[in-house]
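A quick aside before the break. I want you to see a complete sequence-to-structure record at least once, exactly as it would be stored in a machine-readable document. Don't worry about memorizing anything.
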Amino acid sequence: MVKQERAVRTRQVILAAAASVFEERGYQAATISEILTSAGVTKGALYFHFPSKESLAEGVLHEQDLKLPIPDRACKIQELIDIVVTHAHRLQTDPMVRAGVRLSLDQQAQGLDRSGPFLRWSQVGTELLEKAKAQGELLPHVIPHQTADVLVGSFAGIQAMSQAQCNYQDLPTRVSALLRHILPSLVIPSVLASVDLTETRGATVHTELQTLHPELQTLHPTP
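That is the input. The structure line, written in tokens, reads:
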């Protein structure tokens, strides 16, 4: 058990180091040597967990899947909003998430499959929009899978703009504006009037998740 726990900790240290290097340097420029130096582990320890730079990058991308899930909401549009704004909050506070986004948007990352995050978020969005439609929360013309793709693409563009201009400092404001522009064309007015689209919603939900899952904070610390 102790050996297994040590292996888990070592893996997390390596992933954190890789995330730092990938975020700063990008996929192509990053080297295994830099990641080794940052992690402070042996080459054997690194290759035990990750046999290549590609597998390290895939590990960083996958790490986002292991974060705390948004609880079920009675209003599925609010649940969708909470997923979006919480991800925006994590971009401001979590180096692992920032590195994952840098990798997923890095067009120079030759040989790395960057489709995973986009496919995952589109699937999550489609499922929630289908539930919202079944509950009568959406306008009749909405096609869930098309709308999910539009939301994912729009969010990717907004976060890229925010990163380039001010290193995500204004991301909650931009995301709130994005949702206020898009949702009226999707959601029935009575539901739209009841949801929380404020700029502080992401931080509020993040605090809720930490309270619900304190046991997971040691595995996924947020600075």
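Two observations worth writing down. The chain has a mean pLDDT of 89. The longest helix spans residues 2-25. We'll return to this after the break.
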